[in-house]
Amino acid sequence: MAHTDHQTMRRVLRREIAGTVGVLTDDHDFRAMRRYRSFTFDDHATYLRQLESVLRARAAQGTHTTLALFDPEDYAAYCADTGLDPEAPASRTRFTAELAATGATVPYDGRPLAELLPALVDEAVRQATWEYATTLLTRLGPCPTCGEDIGRAAFTRASSLLLRILDTAPPGDRHLVCTVSGPPDTLVSVLHGDQEPHGAIRLDEAEALEFTSVLALGLATRSPGGLVMRTSTAGTADRVYGWRLRGGALQPLTASEVFDAYCTDAESGEPIPPEPGVDYGEPPDLGDEESAPDHRH
Questions:
Q1: Within a domain: residue 143?
Q2: Is residue 171 located within the same domain as residue 284?
Q3: Are residues 106 and 207 in the same domain?
Q4: Strands (E), 18-163
Q5: Number of compact structural domains in the chain
Q6: Range of the domain at 165
Q7: pLDDT tens per residue across span 68-82
Q8: Which portions of the sequence form the region Disordered (predicted)?
Q9: Of 23, 34, 141, 247, which has the highest C-beta tally within 10 A?
Q10: What's the chain's average pLDDT?
């Protein structure tokens, strides 16, 4: 048992929650925080159980709580930049308040932390991917021929392509994956679109922004990559098709190329059994949107 009892641990956690709680989502980050004497938790699993108890109690009182991803390295850098004492609980509270404004967050909605924490990590990855892609787009600067901002033009074109891809998709929920190969890093972005009863597609705005930025980066830098669409509707087989990203344009993949991509292990290259109830096909014609514009930056 830890050197402090459960009641004391909950009191410590409550003191450091001011509407937003910074969560140490994995054991590695938890161990990194134990370098501070004022961080009095000994065991990550116990820490999460006590945190969940506090969150449930706050929810029962009608108090809204936001979960933020607490990164010990970012916290140490923050304290160094601001001159705050990293040992002081007030410093952690102030850092967490900053996370609420600028970092990845998810609302506590009563679900177990085992479900919420993966969502929080996914949100952090999404935000980091968007920030990285946006930074690279900004650095491209103006076209030396026409003076147009290359990154902005690519984002506009990517937005148009995404709308066309969504509009030409068969009925059902959409699941899109866009991959852009580095250097220096390979970026992967996922976009979910749920079909409403009246036919409209509901997208998460932040997801769509990140997806468009990654696609724009691939277009602007003519990096290799790909875009795959999967549509799902009750009572019928899922449909999967896609495009190859080459030379700043989307090139349709054949049904066999999509099948090979889905039925090959990405790491080992070994074949894997095809998924039942899935129809691998060719993508619909995107018209003029599919090819690169006449003037290429």
A1: no
A2: yes
A3: no
A4: 20-23, 66-69, 105-107
A5: 2
A6: 150-289
A7: 999 999 999 999 999
A8: 265-297
A9: 23
A10: 86
